[in-house]
Specification:
The protein is α/β, with parallel strands linked by helices. The chain has 18 helices and 26 strands. The longest helix has 15 residues, at 41-55. The termini are far apart.
């Protein structure tokens, strides 16, 4: 029943935005806290129509977008789709110039819509093909505004015929994976992928057009693009945008003043909000979900105590648009990543035998459904490798319990074979975190030694009492899973998602172990 229901409901993203803009014309669509501008749905529609007409002069196909989280970025993404172009979202947080050039080369396009203010702030040069949004807006004439305003007043059906139509299986965005080990992969998500995921989320969590979402995640990551940008525009919510998720104090103040009802983020960001907020700043939140990394018990308890809010944990991947499962206020099992969304299939498979695992058995997490990507752009081999008998292989390990909750056991690559046993580095991390002093972070890595075999190393951000911590961990872990060595790295390298970059940590630790005198 659900599949037939949402198959009727899923729409082309830009066309659904037009419907919502016509339906809620006087309602606030975007409250941009970076620029101080309030944008109604009516104004948002006019703005995106103007941008759509301006984008017509650029080459068809892909168009790069490198603008911080803002009304401008949201309308540029919508305007690109309305013009028949496909937005390629470019990561500006680390290596913006290299990322922009890589995207142009990988997807073979020229034009990148960016912002002068951003380029100056991140010290990125203007490269060939970059067009400044400030210049586009300065070139908007009274005639352009009038034409777009008149067009926006047309009946919905007529207006939809005047913008790009397209197909549900057309690519709606290109997003890049982190590329920590190899070149970033260009993930193609279709309108069907993102729309079906929004419909699944809406059914699973009970979201309404009266909800107000605090949107501060970057739109070049799938979590921000689907949940912070498209979900509110698709449903007709109000979004409060702010460009820097690391500005913990300002975001806490925005939450206190604007009283959002929904917010998503990464655990590392929520730690920041917890430490920089006053009691009750986030108390207006009805739905608050942490994803992209494991959510520690102490963080959940801290939010409950300080704000009276239940921090829920969810799970997803760029290739699955992204949400696969999430806890809800009605069905919440802390520690798990929640029940699987309607319309989504998950199979837990033994990586060695290929057989389906029983409830409680850890195996490889495979996913099927309309949320699964079209593939990696211009990379049929990598696309084929990502699937096992038609199921997308997340690269994660996990299990489903008797009650249908999914539990994440870590990346397949984050399992180490020590003394012939498979050890989950994430599990070791979780247990260690419980015994670390407040404010100390850790990352557990494996070091391979040809003579002595693999062993576990704990990296911590400050000196700790190793003997005491190991003594406490012994009650919950076998000896082979206990860290043999502690290494202090004051600033553990982070990815732009807010996760600790365990690949970089692993390389650093291996260098330290091999060259102890350096």
């Amino acid at each position: 029943y659900f599949n037939s229901l949402y198959n009727q409901n899923i729409m082309l993203l830009h066309q659904q935005f037009v419907r919502m803009a016509k339906k809620h014309s006087a309602k606030l669509a975007i409250k941009d806290k970076t620029t101080g501008k309030d944008v109604t749905y009516s104004t948002a529609l006019i703005g995106s129509l103007i941008l759509s007409s301006k984008f017509q002069k650029y080459e068809k196909g892909f168009i790069g977008i490198m603008i911080p989280t803002s009304a401008g970025c949201a309308l540029a993404v919508a305007g690109a789709l309305m013009s028949g172009r496909i937005p390629v979202m470019i990561n500006y947080s680390t290596g913006a110039e290299a990322n922009a050039r890589y995207a142009q080369k990988k997807c073979r396009f020229k034009t990148i819509i960016t912002s002068k203010a951003l380029l100056e702030k991140i010290n990125c040069p203007l490269i060939e093909g970059m067009v400044l949004i400030e210049d586009i807006m300065a070139g908007v004439s009274t005639g352009d505004k009038l034409k777009a305003a008149l067009k926006s007043k047309l009946p919905t059906g007529l207006l939809l015929k005047m913008i790009h139509k397209g197909d549900l299986d057309d690519t709606s965005v290109i997003l890049f994976t982190s590329g920590s080990e190899k070149d970033p992969k260009a993930v193609q998500l279709t309108h069907r992928n993102i729309s079906s995921n929004i419909e699944s989320i809406k059914q699973h969590i009970d979201l309404y057009d009266t909800d107000i979402i605090l949107s501060n995640l970057v739109f070049f990551h799938v979590f921000g693009l689907t949940v912070d940008l498209w979900l509110p525009l698709y449903i007709g919510m109000t979004m409060i945008t702010y460009a820097n998720p690391l500005d913990f104090q300002t975001i806490s103040r925005i939450a206190r003043e604007e009283k959002p009802t929904m917010m998503v983020g990464t655990p590392s960001f929520f730690w920041g909000y917890l430490s920089k907020s006053d009691p009750g700043d986030f108390s207006s939140l009805r739905v608050v979900v942490a994803g992209a990394d494991k959510c520690p018990d102490a963080l959940r308890e801290g939010f409950k105590k300080k704000h009276g809010v239940t921090l829920l944990e969810g799970y997803g991947a760029t290739e699955t648009s992204p949400v696969i499962s999430t806890n809800t206020n009605d069905n919440n099992k802390p520690g798990s990543v929640g029940k699987i969304l309607p319309g989504v299939q998950v199979r837990i498979e033994n990586p060695e035998t290929g057989e389906e695992c029983k409830p409680g058995e850890v195996g490889r997490v495979l996913v099927k459904g309309d949320l699964v990507m079209k593939g990696y752009y211009d990379d049929p081999e990598l696309t084929a490798e990502a699937f096992i008998n038609g199921w997308y292989n997340t690269g994660d390990m996990g299990f489903i319990d008797e009650e249908g909750y999914l539990w994440h056991a870590g990346r397949y690559k984050r399992f180490a074979k020590v003394g012939g046993e498979m050890v989950s580095l994430v599990k070791v991390e979780n247990i260690m975190e419980k015994h670390l002093p407040e404010g100390v972070s850790c990352c557990i890595v494996e070091v391979s030694d040809e003579k002595k075999g693999s062993y576990i190393v704990a990296t911590v951000s400050k000196e700790v009492n190793k003997t005491e911590i190991l003594r406490k961990m012994m009650d919950e872990l076998p000896t082979i899973a206990l860290p043999r060595l502690f290494v202090v790295i004051n600033e553990l390298p982070m990815m732009s998602t807010g996760k600790i970059d365990f690949r970089t940590v692993t390389r650093m630790v291996q260098d330290i172990v091999r060259n102890p005198d350096v």
